[in-house]
Amino acid sequence: QVQLVESGGDLVQPGGSLRLSCAASGFTFDNYVLNWYRQGPGKERELVGIIGSRGDTIDYADSVKGRFNIYRDNAKNTLYLEMNTLKPDDTAVYYCNVRIRGIYYWGKGTLVTVSS
Question: H or E segment at 87?
Fold first, then answer.
């Protein structure tokens, strides 16, 4: 069974940094592109970034470019999202995601709150 478990969400002040983790199991981790999504209050879920199966290609939403960094450790089956210069509008539940055979699998999310 595919499982994705996010962790690392916290309350952080504007301008601060945070690293999120996603521990994966139930599939061949290094065969798949992985994604980070987020859903803020009153907003639809949006794609934050994508990383290739071996970290070879990375794409980010314009709203986080230059501030967020996606990376993965295939030996540990773990996906990361390093977030810097956080803004209040980064407040959201953050989810990792993988598409396998046309089906999207999701973790339950981890909450990031950016507030002073």
Answer: none
Residue 9: the pLDDT is 98
Distance of CA 38 to the CA centre of its chain: 7
Percent above pLDDT 90 for the chain = 97
| DSSP, residue by residue, 13-37 | -TT--EEEEEEEESS-GGGS-EEEE
Burial of residue 50 (number of CB atoms within 10 Å: 0-12, 13-18, 19+): middle
Q: Which tokens in the block code for residue 103?
A: 């089906």
The tens digit of pLDDT for each residue in 56-77 reads 889 999 999 999 999 999 999 9
**Would you say 25 and 3 are in contact if contact means Cβ atoms under 8 Å apart?**
yes
Structure tokens at 115: 């507030």
Q: Check residue 24 and give left, alpha or beta (phi > 0: left; psi -120 to 50: alpha).
A: beta
Q: How far is CA 110 from CA 53, 54, 55, 102, in A?
A: 23, 24, 22, 24
By C-alpha distance, which of 49, 109, 108, 55 is closest to 81? 49
